[in-house]
Every structure is written in structure tokens, then in C-alpha cells.
Amino acid sequence: MALPPFQEFYETNRVGVYRYLVGAIGANEAEDCLQEVFIDALRAYPRVRRDSNLRAWVMRIAQRQVIDESRRRKRRPEPTDSITERSEPLGQEPADGPFGSGLWERVRRLPPMQRGAIVHRFANDCSYAEIARTLGCTEVAARRNVHEGLKKLRAAAQAIGRGA
Amino acid sequence: MNELEAELRRTLSSREPPISVDERFRQRALKEGLVDVAYSVFPSPIGRLLAAVTKRGLVRLAYIDGNADAVLRLLAQDVSPRLLELPAKTASVREELQQYFARERERFGISIDLSHVPGFSMRVLEATADIPYGQVLTYREVARRAGREAAVRAAGNALARNPIPIVVPCHRVVRTGGGLGGYTGGLDRKRRLLALEGVPAA
């Protein structure tokens, strides 16, 4: 099976990768990061194994970009709360939701595997098998990471007094 | 499904990247030299065409009657999978074709890339590229000019698989008895191209 033209691969995956990035690092960084992900993918494309699952492959590139971006962010001076607030994708993260406006920010503070599993699960509606393939873990571990992540998010929501 | 999961799903499910990101990606890919094949699809008086260019030149010109997927997949397989839609890179091809259809151009100046065509076929196409505007040759004569006069059928096959019709004018090759022969885009297009060039109807 030959590789599809990169244009087709791009059109098939741009939305999924973008949603993953918005979930994992926020809308502001997601746009630049999306470009980096597909530049990396284009560079490596002719060497992809023909039997690869291309969606899992590009998601792994996106995961690496997220890790790099997090490192870059750590090297920057710590932003104040108000700046953090402004850099958030306010557009579709309604402040009046039952879990508050910082829901995805709390997702981003989860341990890496839980964060990854939650983002794949809810940004792109991935099955546990897909999550396992992308994160390089077992399906059982994927399910557990989603479960543990949700538990922490619920606890955090209760701590800030949800619905108040 | 509980509230938290519904909320996580809802907040991202309708997000789409802005179109400007696609354009920035394309420009960056070009700048970094990562695009092996750039293509665009555009209208012409004889139907939609797809033009694809490499660093060497025009590598494919195809009649697109349905969608372009099959043509693009073959390009990815035969030339390179690093294939992106970049209309700016095919601007000179489109311009020369437009002039050709308006009878303002008899010779194409754009460079062509036949490096993916095997030996004898390439010589057949090179011989065909030299046929002047408004003139026709027989399959046998083209085979002779390509170095194998007896290989008339092989020459016919090479022309049937011509990756760059119009610019490599395989429509100017006809049967010995005066019949039109075949054409990659259908005989009606062959007739129209010959008529455009003022060749008496075959």
C-alpha cells in the first residue's frame, strides 16, 4: 500500500491534530504548533513505514511537539495569573460552564499520560485502542489513565466549589 | 455519560483550525524545500486540467473528469508522496496553456520533467515534443525517430501513457492510413486540439 499524497494526509488529519493541540496546550499555541507538527511530518513522510497507522504516527509527532512546547514554556518567566487567563482560548471554553473556565487548564496540569489520554479521548473521541496506539501503552493502561485523570478533575472541581 | 465528560467533549468538538494556518504551512513547506511535487486543478476550454510540477519542470498534466484522487495517488507513488496543492507554483503552466488555447502560443517554453518515464517511452515522448504546431506524424514515424521503427505498438503505448498531454503533443500523432488513432483524453479532445491548430479534420 503506497503512501497517500501528503495533501490528502494533511486534509484528513489537520482538524484532529489541531483539536488535540488545543486541548493539550491551548488555542494560542496550537496554531503555531500545528504548523510545526506538519512540517516535521512532511520532512519524515517519505520514510514512514508503509504499513504504519498514519493517524497514530502524526499524533505521536504532535505529542512530541507538546512536550517541546511545555519545555519552552517552562524556560520562560512564570506568567502572572492574569496573563495566563488571557492566553486561554476563551472563545469556546465558556466561563459559566459547571466546571468553570479553567477546565482544560486543569487537564494540562495532569501527569503526562493522564493528560494525553484525556485529550485524545475527549478532543477527538478516540477509542481506547487508538489512545493505546498513540501513547504506546496497553488498552488497559489507556482506560486507567482516562479514569484516573477524570477522578482528579472531579476532585479539583469539587475543591473549587463547582456550581457555586 | 456524566457532566464532566460531556463538558470536555463539548468544548473542543467544534473547533477547526483557521484557514490562514494552512497557507502559512504551505509557505513554510516551500521555503524549507520540503515540497517535491506542487499541483493545482484549473479549468480549460477542453475540461478541467491538473498540472503538477517538480523542481525540474512540468511532470504531469491530466484531464480531470471526475475527482483528482487517482491521478494524485499515482503521482505520490511514481514521483514523490511529498505532494502539496500550491497554485502559485503552476502559474506559468496555466498561463502558457491559456495562450495556447487562445491561439497566441505555438511553442511551450516551460521545462518538462520526463525523468520518471522509462527509456524507450521517454525517447518516443521527446520525438513527439519536436513535432511542430499544426503538423502531424504517424505512429511509425515517431517510432523511427525514437530509434526503433519496428516498435510501432510500443510507441503507441508510450503515447497512450503520455504524462504531459498537450505540452508533449501526442495529439499530433495519427495512424498511417489517416485515422486518428487513440488519445489519452478521448478522441473528441484530440479532434478539438487538432482543429484548434488548424489541422484538417481526419
Fraction in helix of chain B? 40-55%
Strand order of the largest sheet of chain B: 3-2-1-4
Poorly predicted parts of chain A: 81-96
- The helix/strand class of chain B is alpha/beta
Runs of chain B in which pLDDT lies below 50 for 5 or more consecutive residues are none
Please state the structural category of chain A: mainly alpha
Number of helices of chain A: 8
Please report the total strand number of chain A as a whole number.
Answer: 0
Characterise the protein shown here.
Chain A is mainly α and 164 residues long. The longest helix of chain A is centred in the middle third of the chain and has 22 residues, at 54-75. Chain A contains eight helices and no strands. Chain B contains eight helices and six strands. In chain B, a hairpin with a 4-residue loop joins strand 2 and strand 3 (58-63). In chain B, helix 5 crosses helix 7 (152-160) and helix 6 (139-145) crosses helix 7. The mean pLDDT of chain B is 94.
